[in-house]
Amino acid sequence: MMSKSLFLNNHFLRAVLIGFGLYSVIAVSGQSVNDLLLSEYRQVRHAVCEVVINGSDFCTGTVINHTSSREGLYIITAGHCISNSDAIHSVYFSFGEFALLNNTSVLQSSKWQSNGQFELLAFNKELDFALFYIDHTPPRHMVTYQLGWDIHSLNPPYGVSFHHGEVDLQRTAIGRNVISPASFIGYPSEANAFWRVSGWGVGRTDLGSSGAGLIDHRLRFLGGLSGSTVTNSDTIDYFFRFDFAYNRFQELDQQLAHWIDPEQQGIVYGGPLNDLFKLNLYEEYETYTDDFSVTSEHSFTQLVAASDQVTVLGVYLSILTYNELVPFSELQLDFAAQDGEVFYSQNVLLVDLSENQENYIELFEPVVTPANFQIQLSIPNDQDARISLPLLESGNAIIGMLVDQEMGQAHEDIVEPIRTKIFPNPTNSYSYIPATGVIQISCFNAQGHEVFPKINQVNGEYIVNWHGVNPGLYFVNIVLGNGKNSYFRLIIRD
Description:
Oligomer: single chain
Number of strands: 39
Distance between the termini: 56 Å
């Protein structure tokens, strides 16, 4: 038997269950600023899909939230992805299939593709947007996310874009430069109708990235990729502005507001399609180093330590290969207490598993685990079969769980909704703090003297204006409504 352990402390488990959303930051030793930034957006990447039009045109789409009463998905992409709206005979939307680890493309996430049925609701080539609707949704284990948006958006301090560049696995581009309104030579009829991103700090866009969403620091959709220019080897990307296109035209087939915001709220918050979260028992920045074979003579055990009970609806299992030597060979999946006593068991046919891919195994019934438990994988003794698991440097397998924070007894203790952050850090201009639960904000320099930057509350967040404050190290104390304080070290640059 091979046994590995994974410790989920209280803070980490809470952050994962909240979906690495707006109010959680994970600080991990050795993790870069880019890794920290991406952890904020981990759940959001499930709003991104590949759009295949007429079987040959590939673009990237984004699921956006809405105030409509229709059930289904609203997916926005670039208008130039459609050469002729009257000549569309098929559109497929594919979700998932991004690399599970940052340093490898060998292991892919689970994938789902729509059934080909669609409606093209709004389409405009002048502002370069297309809005699709499908009346069916991905299965819940895809943990599909719907991005929020705000037509009163301020210029964001940075942006992130997930895309399917070069018709490949989902990729990432991160830009830390201030994103500003601009005109785009490819669409000269409208001034300042696009967002200009002058170079990415990490990654880049590629062929197939058209329509990829620009996501701001509040996890909201700003617009989709329309095109690029190259000047002195510097690639500048232009994204159509969602707030500009929202109700620019009166015709319903060229207007976004009529379809996604019939209540005319002008702002919609994002969130997961279902109140379910994918809880990875590994980190994306870990390195895949080895594999381990589970046979009738060898089993694999992963220990999990949480602060309290967790309700598990399914398990994500990544495998490299399997060798089926006996017809209908099975893999046995067990949940066991810390002392090894099994309290849930389920068998899975090997032929139902895909190699080099993340497989989702739905449990026959929800399993409420104790705070400390084990996930065990084995081959029944009467079967001569083998399955190869990828192992990380930590010795953990690449395993995840679909959890339901509404079920079970202890999730109110695990999930703490009042939490905050300050971003970006470092900064040379503004910082943003979500207003939820915040009672007081105090700022001090390295000598302990209080400083008084201008602080305004706009659209559900505090904006801290550091102009006039000398560069250096500062400490920000945020008092929360649950009686807790959050302290942040903040660097202000020239």
